[in-house]
Amino acid sequence: ETGVTQSPTHLIKTRGQQVTLRCSSQSGHNTVSWYQQALGQGPQFIFQYYREEENGRGNFPPRFSGLQFPNYSSELNVNALELDDSALYLCASSRYNTDTQYFGPGTRLTVL
Amino acid sequence: SQQGEEDPQALSIQEGENATMNCSYKTSINNLQWYRQNSGRGLVHLILIRSNEREKHSGRLRVTLDTSKKSSSLLITASRAADTASYFCATDFKAAGNKLTFGGGTRVLVKP
């Protein structure tokens, strides 16, 4: 167990809806990164949050947005869901500018 | 693309045999990390090797890094059925700053 928790575990939405995924970081960690993992592929970096600000973003459209709270927990929001958004969404926490990221168990999102 | 490429994509071995998988990447890195994933769940960090290191060991795991060839290998010795999982390499590129870029993974099946 890494101490990183995510909720919910599974989620089913329909195309066009909006979704919010949540992540609680490991104690002592102030940085949260989000990744999208499509079935059969490796994770892809979405964005990273540090001190409640976005600190880098991958190749994802603006309908993917996030927040980080003062307790370092984080949310990933996806608007106008598309079928291709169906994936496992992973969050990872770390201390800022340290090497190792610790991953949560993920949220499995299905868009119908 | 800066994504690491892994081979083989899949590997099937008998318990007790060694498993070797390789990862190649394209640009300069700070470090390279290997993760394990069981059945689409969260990623477990296995080992990190820095760009100035050539080899690291952790239990039954041995990782090598050749920065001149931009490649790394992960060796699992004396494999067990519990080693059945997907294994991913992730690179922390110098320009990225602790935002990991994952390969497509190697799916390892260890038969008892």
Radius of gyration of chain B, taken over Cα atoms and rounded to an integer in Å = 13 Å
Give the averaged pLDDT of chain A, no decimals.
Answer: 94
Low-confidence stretches of chain A: none
Sheet bearing the most strands of chain B, described?
6 strands, mixed
How many E strands of chain A?
11
Please identify the oligomeric state: heterodimer
Mean pLDDT of chain B: 91
State which percent range the strand residues of chain A make up.
Answer: over 45%
Low-pLDDT residue spans of chain B: none
Net shape of chain B: globular
Q: Count of DSSP E strands of chain B?
A: 11
Query: Secondary-structure element sequence of chain B?
Result: EEEEEEEEEEE
**Largest inter-chain interface?**
A-B, 29 and 25 residues
Share of β-strand residues of chain B:
over 45%
The rounded distance between the terminal residues' Cα atoms of chain B is: 38 Å
Order of helices and strands of chain A: EEEEEEEEEEE
Derived structural class of chain A: mainly beta
> Overall 3D geometry of chain A?
globular
Give helix % range of chain A.
under 10%
Estimated radius of gyration of chain A? 13 Å
Give a brief outline of the structure.
Chain A contains no helices and eleven strands.
